[in-house]
Amino acid sequence: MKVIILLGAPGSGKGVTGKKVAPDSGYIHISTGDMLREAVESETAVGREVASFMMHGELVPDDIMARIVEDRLDCRDRNDSYMLDGFPRTVAQADLLEEGLVRRHGEILYVFFFDAPREVLIERLSGRRLCRKCGTNYHIVNMLSKREGVCDVCGGELYQRSDDREATIENRLEVYNQQTESLISLYEKQDLLVRIDSSRTVELIAEDILKVLKNG
Ligand code: AMP
Questions:
Q1: Are 6 and 17 in contact (CB under 8 A)?
Q2: Which of 16, 71, 89 to mutate to test the pocket of ligand 1 (most atoms within 8 A of CB)?
Q3: Which atom of ligand 1 is nearest the CA belonging to 53?
Q4: DSSP 10-62
Q5: What is the pLDDT of residues 88-102, one digit of tens each?
Q6: Nearest CA to ligand 1 atom 3
Q7: Whole-model pTM?
């Protein structure tokens, strides 16, 4: 099992880039944020457990995350190569992943660190809109839909994630600084970290990642 990790603050572009890169990369894109939002939306047992953490921009507890990710990695896909977007987010989750990979004879090949200044993160998060039906990303300034409030791809309704409101954004960035940022040096020490300037367009970020995956 081969794993690459997309690491970065909320709004750094991990999700959009992951969805763009995955089809050409041979890696299966797994976004823990998307998985959790689906669980909340469908009101599953896990969804009910995690809803309040997500609403307030807090991290879901590590034991719940471990269960979700372990289950996902065990639905073995043919090529067994995964792009983890938004996991791990704590040192405990990084340890759990490491143990899980040892058991599965797997390894982390690269950790792409999406590096962008705070102003860019806030601007992206506060203007982000998503399609309720197909999940396509828009932005009220940088990436408008042709018709206001309507998805270009499927005609679905555009909405703002409840955790993309101003007060929650501040908390999510604080949580990132407190609980996730230390993973940068952890993976740097393991010589796995590839720093990407993610203040640029998704096309340029995707290009950089594909280049690394192709040439090493
Ligand atoms: P994201 O879509 O990656 O911004 O994630 C949205 C929310 O899901 C986060 O603010 C957390 O509440 C939760 N979440 C996603 N991934 C994780 C994780 N690895 N650990 C804990 N909580 C997570």
A1: yes
A2: 89
A3: 12
A4: TTSSHHHHHHHHHHHHTPEEEEHHHHHHHHHHTT-HHHHHHHHHHHTTPPPPH
A5: 999 999 999 999 999
A6: 33
A7: 0.94
List of long-range contacts for 59-67, beta carbons under 8 Å, 24+ apart: 59/89, 59/90, 59/175, 59/179, 60/36, 62/90, 62/92, 62/93, 62/96, 65/32, 65/89, 65/93, 65/96, 66/93, 66/96
Note whether 85 and 30 are within 8 A (CB). Answer: yes
46-105 tens-digit pLDDT? 999 999 999 999 999 999 999 999 999 888 766 689 999 999 999 999 999 999 999 988
